[in-house]
Amino acid sequence: MTIQICARCDNPTREPVVVAIGHGASAGGGTVYACPGECADSFPRQRDPFDHGTLPARHDGCEAEQALC
Known about the structure:
This protein is of the alpha+beta class. It contains 2 helices and 4 strands, in the order E-E-E-E-H-H. The longest helix is centred in the middle third of the chain and has 4 residues, at 38-41.
């Protein structure tokens, strides 16, 4: 991987860790990198958007209500 700048300490690192993905409406997103270890551990853990276990099911009870889902 290429050298990236740590978002916490602003130092270059040869072993960057992805700690966040920024999202933007008009300019797209960006990847936020940190040094492995203490800097990376200081960022909050990001929610996995593909982990359906943390989201409520949208179609529960559709048959009972006879709604179009």
